[in-house]
Give the backbone structure.
Amino acid sequence: MKIVPTLALAFSLAGGTAYAQTPPVAPPVQVAEEDPVIDVVGGISAPMPIAIPVMPTSAVAATPAGSTDVLGRQLSEIITNDLRNSGLFTPLSQDRLLPVAYSQVTAPAYHNWGATGAQALVQGYVRANGNGSLTVGCYLYDIASRAEMIREGFVVSPADWRRAAHKCADAIYTRLTGEGPYFDSQLVYVAEQGPKNRRRKQLAIMDQDGANHRFITNGQSIVLTPRLSPKQNQIVFMSYENKRPSIRIYDLGSRTTRLLVDNASLTFAPRFSPNGQNVLFSMSVAGNTDLYTVPAAGGTPRRLTSAPGIDTGGSYSPDGSKIVFESDRGGTQQLYVMNADGSDQKRISFGGGRYATPAWSPRGDLVAFTRTGGGAFRIGVMSPSGGGEKLLTNSWGDEGPTWSPNGRVLMFFRTAQGSGRPDLWSVDLTGVNARKIPTPLDGSDPSWGPIRP
């Protein structure tokens, strides 16, 4: 898929670049004495009420994405859903929202919004430009102090209008929480269907909210553990094409697949290094499974571990200097950390049960994992040194965590007991906002990519 070259920040409070066309006239930016702030780390007992009315248009115009008045309603709906799904906001229902005229976008009727109970107000507009692009304006206001908090604009091609909504939601989320963005991102996963003994497994890619879903493989060969490259232009995955385990790389631009590692023995869990130049994986040779690394362009694998037992599930730290992995070398499945060259291997998990599928947070501060015990699989986090362990889910079959780009939300797959049918779920670090992600088929092995440029 072509990376949206037309998506650009048209102006911001920091940059101050002007629109090419005349936008609504904005009043001087005021500095709120006490801006509303959300505490993400400590947990949310009362999500912030926020009003997100339909975005007006300067003039109704037909575009390849639909008429601008319809797009204004859809943009507001996407921003509403993004913020609601974060668990940190309670958008007001539509029947409490006042219509906003184009001329009011930069001059909110504060006296009306104050009675709704909302603490923050999102207003914006959509406009069709003469060159075929769209401009989406995005404004955030503090209702109590009557102050403008952000003002941003995005120029997009009609095909990318949804991304403008996600970018607007990301700007609001970041301004009110102090955390990084994550709404304008994609994920790959394994789409599943069919009976337990004949599951059809395909690679699929979609936006983080389930939109723009696309199957990548046809399901004729089993695929497992897909991972997006840091540049989001490739997917590395395990394949059983011709009933032979191998590691392959799919190029999203050319839509072609190439073989990276072919081995008669089993290979597992490939993952890109943070710079995308290498692929970490495990391989079974002569009855022993160890971690290896291989250039993403192809080459000879280099062995990193050699202890007796199964070493697998490796995940790089954000700076690429260390690797967390799972190993049963001590008699039970536990987590270990080592330098990227394989030196200085140390065990970090010591709780009861088994630990698997570690994933290093993009913030570097935590490692997520699957913990097995009492017949159940749960998602948890701990520090890279092994302290501060916390379980985030308490279901029967939760596995395979993957981090959002800002390191504050985890996606995983959940299998209801006895069903054999997994679904994708997400949960934030407080563990109180678990929700199911919509997919056309059953879903497993998600991999969340970075924020899109």
